[in-house]
Amino acid sequence: MNVQQTIDPAAASAPPAAPRARVAIADDKAMLRAARDLTKDIATARPAIYWTDTLLSAGLGYAALAGAILVDSVPLAIALGLVAALALYRALLFIHELSHIHRDALPGYRLAWNVLVGVPVLTPSFMYEGVHTLHHARTRYGTVEDPEYLPLALMKPWSLPLFVAVALLAPPALLFRFAVLVPLGAILPPVRKLVWERFSALSINPDFRRRPPEGELRKRVFWQELGGSLWAIALIGSTFAIGWRPLLIALAVLSLTAVLNQLRTLVAHLWENDGEPMTVTAQFLDSVNVPPPGWVAEIWAPVGLRYHALHHLLPSMPYHSLGEAHRRIAAHLGGESTYSAANHPGMVPLVLRIARSTMGRGRSEA
């Protein structure tokens, strides 16, 4: 996850040599109706799946991380670190589910997830709740008011590797945020305001400013920030007793997780919108499904995120139902439908497509 891991679009992008003619994409009402009607019976979150998946992913991640810290063999430590990164990545991505599921759907799950995953990896759920739903707002997607959108395909070629590489800094930045900035903000209101507006959301849009929390979220923010701050201070304090090695290994593992998430973010959309509002179908086609038969996408886009385009049609569909929803809709609409146009073969072709777009813009400016 990235905390304002941004690239200034004013610096990274440049206007094309000639204005692009935009063709408005009308909503495919048959597709929207099929997505709604064919999936009503699988739209309920199943607590046993959520709890089991989360506990197993987090347990495996922490066990592998402990092994990476304790073993003497460098190759074994690297292998265990990779397992830890992948397992914790999966556990962490349940934050996405928390931003969509009804508050009464999984009693106790939000608190348990924050205790087991959110606070320990310094990414509590408030950093996504109330933010990610803005990305799904009908009139915000792809505009300057979307916290999770940058027109990456319209930027310069160097913006893509920078977008991915900056994720390496996320774990130490989060440690600094919770250990230093949060306590400082408790004393100095201007610091508190700055931290909340700029460094309290999993956002990639540098122009996004978070509004003050309201209602139930306000109380959750207080307790999650307090827990995160105490944990971050304890982590730094532990170095005086056990040295820096354990913390540095943990930060390295979480940096790998952050980079993997940033790569997934890079291919979650085609990033071809230039800021204009879009229809639901246009938003769908700017988003990406990477369905079976390939299995690798389940590693880099777990917890249903391989069906990201479908998720934009059915934001509240639980992750464990997205595969079945995809099969039903695809079978009903057929291979020549609008729905099939959002299906892509994998990460590499998507990265190459975006890279070709940026390089084409670079040549047009030369």
TrEMBL record:
A GO biological process of this protein is: lipid biosynthetic process
Q: Give GO MF terms, alphabetically.
A: oxidoreductase activity, acting on paired donors, with oxidation of a pair of donors resulting in the reduction of molecular oxygen to two molecules of water
Pfam families hit by this protein: FA_desaturase (PF00487)
The record's annotation in InterPro entries points to: FA_desaturase_dom, Fatty_acid_desaturase
Q: Which domain of life is it from?
A: Bacteria
Which keywords accompany this UniProt record? Answer: Membrane, Transmembrane, Transmembrane helix
Instruction: Tell me which residues make up the Fatty acid desaturase domain.
Output: 75-333
Q: Which residues cross the membrane?
A: 48-70, 76-96, 108-128, 162-188, 221-241
Q: Name one GO cellular component term.
A: membrane
Q: What is this protein called?
A: Fatty acid desaturase
The species is Pelagerythrobacter marensis
